[in-house]
Design brief:
Layout lengths: L1 E4 L4 H8 L7 E4 L17 E4 L7 H9 L4 E4 L9 H4 L4 E3 L6 H17 L1 H9 L17 E5 L3 H12 L3 E5 L11 E2 L2 H7 L2 E4 L13 H6 L4 E5 L8 H9 L3 E6 L21 H8 L3 E3 L8 H19 L13
Parallel strand pairs: 1-2, 1-3, 3-4, 4-5, 6-7, 6-9, 7-8, 9-10, 10-11, 11-12
Helix pairs in contact: 1-11, 4-6
This protein binds 1,4-dihydronicotinamide adenine dinucleotide.
Length: about 325
């Protein structure tokens, strides 16, 4: 099998090169897969893509014309693939779980950084500025965290929050009744009662912009919003407004709805024309990172291993629960 891997970064390449399977040959391309770059896939049996490759109908039809029948996502989320267009044309596989702890721990890292101002303190002390003015934070102990989506990552995050002695509210379309010390509530109650809200659900048509002007209005003054899931869950303009009005106390964002234009690239020598992103970054109580919740050695190795298992399932014509299909 000859596989073309798009949006490949040195850390991805390293984990795939370790696999060393003689029947699978990987070629790594830095480019994202799109209509412009699709020619690179000529002659390959399958393509591997990541979260910001936009696999729309046009790309799928072109892959189909090129005889490529295998699309592998190096991610759990598949909102960037038009599954309807892929139906009967190309098999799509994902990596449903690689290391939920990598994202959950990262969400907590962002939260702690934000509320204890360690990013500010670090910069100050490098300049021998040891003043503490403006660095007052708050305890997590006894605070209420609202977790939206209690799947693998949400559960791992809940476990971490339990260790901090937090009260945990949760909302999920399919609540997990086996969870202890967690109170499932309506979304409205979660928005009203939480000091911190962390998003751990996939992006779907029904929950796009679930954090919007209306839901922000319901929230407690000073609420901290953490999004390590998908940018489209948050109406960013409404979030900016919420921060300006001091309704939102802080935001920790590892994802952004327009991230595909910027994330994973060095934009430090460019004029970024996205006013919303620039505004967000300018706020002292917002942390923006470049979709890196997954970026641990354990997670990268697990992504590579499962992707290869997906290729093998395809080669052997085996059913796999990692295959994603269009749901009516
Ligand atoms: P999962 O499938 O184990 O859990 C998702 C949970 O969300 C499920 O319990 C599901 O019932 C629930 N859910 C679905 N629709 C919902 C809705 N409308 N409202 C509330 N809950 C809903 O997925 P997992 O592994 O926990 O991942 C969650 C999300 O995290 C992924 O979809 C992806 O968007 C994001 N992610 C981000 C990464 C990063 O690097 N920042 C890396 C990996 C995943």
């Amino acid at each position: 099998m000859r596989i073309a891997m798009f949006d490949s970064k040195p850390y991805d390449i390293e984990s795939f090169q370790k696999l060393n399977n003689p029947s699978i040959e990987y070629t790594f391309f830095e480019e994202k897969l799109s209509c412009k770059t699709i020619k690179l896939a000529e002659g390959y049996d399958g393509v591997i893509v990541f979260v910001n490759d936009n696999i729309n109908e046009e790309v799928i039809n072109k892959l189909n014309e090129m005889g490529i029948k295998l699309l592998l996502l190096r991610s759990a989320g598949y909102n960037n693939v038009d599954l309807y267009a892929a139906k009967d044309k190309i098999k799509v596989y994902r990596v449903p779980a690689y290391s939920p702890e990598s994202v959950a721990e990262y969400a907590m890292a962002l939260l702690l950084t934000s509320i204890r101002r360690t990013h500010k303190a670090y910069i100050r002390s490098r300049d021998f500025n040891f003043s503490l003015n403006g660095l007052v934070g708050f305890n997590l102990h006894n605070k209420t965290v609202g977790v939206i989506g209690t799947g693998k990552i949400g559960k791992a995050f809940i476990n971490i929050c339990k260790g901090f002695g937090m009260n945990i509210l949760a909302f999920d379309k399919y609540p997990d009744t086996s969870l202890t010390d967690v109170k499932y509530v309506s979304l409205e109650e979660l928005f009203k009662e939480s000091d911190i809200i962390s998003l751990h659900c996939p992006l779907t048509v029904e929950n796009t912009y679930m954090i919007n002007k209306f839901t922000i209005n319901m929230m407690k003054k000073g609420v901290v919003i953490i999004n390590t899931s998908r940018g489209g869950l948050v109406d960013t303009e409404a979030l900016v407004e919420g921060i300006r009005e001091k309704k939102v106390g802080a935001a920790c964002l590892d994802v952004y709805e327009e991230e595909s234009h910027y994330f994973y690239k060095d934009m430090s020598n460019h004029i970024v024309s996205d006013e919303v992103l620039s505004r967000l970054i300018s706020f002292p109580n917002v942390i923006v990172t470049s979709h890196q919740g997954f970026l641990t050695r354990e997670a990268l190795d697990s992504i590579a291993k499962t992707t290869e298992e997906n290729i093998i399932s395809y080669m052997e014509g085996k059913e796999s629960s990692n295959e994603v299909k269009y749901q009516e």
